[in-house]
Input
Amino acid sequence: MSTMPPSHAGSRGSVALQIALAVVMTAYLWLFLQAKSQIEVCVLLALAAAAVFAASRFGLTRRIEAASRASPGAGPWCALLATLALIAAFYDVHYVLLLICTVLLFSTACLGLTVQFGYVGIANFAGAAFFGIGSYTIAVLAARTGISHLLLILLSGVVSAAIGSILILPVLRTRGHYAALVTIAFGVLFHTFVEVNNVLGGPQGLRLPGIATFGYAFNDGFELFDQDVSFYVPYALLSLVIFGAAYITIKRLERSWIGLSMDVVRTDETAAAAFGIHIARWKVVAFMLGNFLAGVAGSVYGMMIGFVSPDNFTFSDSLLLVSIAVLGGLGNPLGLVPAAFIVLVLPQKLQFIQEYRFLFYAAVVIAILLFRNDGLLPRRTRQFFNNEASR
Output
């Protein structure tokens, strides 16, 4: 007869369930990323749809959600190990590693949108502009100064946040759709500015050097156990570190009194003002923090692809970032990675339908939001007391 307390047994069971889910998801992503024929892609998509339907039909989805609530720290660790396993598995495949880096960096930028949109309720449709400000900042500074590239990445985020602090002034004077229109106007303004500015390369854009730090150039790649390792591996690891640091910061912020104040501002500004919460202060903090993360992600992305141009930061790219934030579950940072995978990787794997692939992708997104209208992983309501205490 077991002497283990029921709570410990339940906790171990929830952790085991999350580990099993991570193993299955990693194996599926490994198969999906290396699938080359269109038949393989279609079969894997059909399997995923059948698995989601079966999980919902037989109650597995509810068990997974309960396990996540019982052991909230296990999910992020499983996701971290799964990402490292995928990077190790595709250590010499440039294209797949580029996709992984892109997913991680766009997810980092969407963490900023989560703070702005999901926490204080500012709809920012200029995410690509702040992403581009980070890329252009590091392109100019890396070519004309001898500052360390790691320091330049942080500086790019600071410049992006500083420019965003100018935009926050009209945003604070408007609400809802009008605030969204202000950000749309800024995105168009940024695209036009870099397109006509010859100092920034105009329509031809600028070339960037790869990241070099502590005497090691990322673009040189390296050998491990007599095997050539892709130069994208250091970028993937750096992108993972940046996303992990941003994720921890956002989760700590969410659980603090700052996050609670931001939630009150988003929910009801009149009530927030009545309780003495400074609405403008938390909107400024959220807007600048979100733009800082977008600028940092954009700087690494620019150094990785080695080239920036106005066409990389259009209004459609801003819509792409917003769709990732909404599809993942507004206000839930953990849902951004699977949403970014669907939005960024799925169209690349559907080359066989050429111009119709974005139409198919849009249909998939609409279908997901139809059956899960709060996103893939909706944000849970705050609970200040456990069930036993609240009775």
In short: The two ends are 32 Å apart (CA to CA). Strands lie at 206-207, 212-213, 216-217, 222-224, 227-229, 307-308.
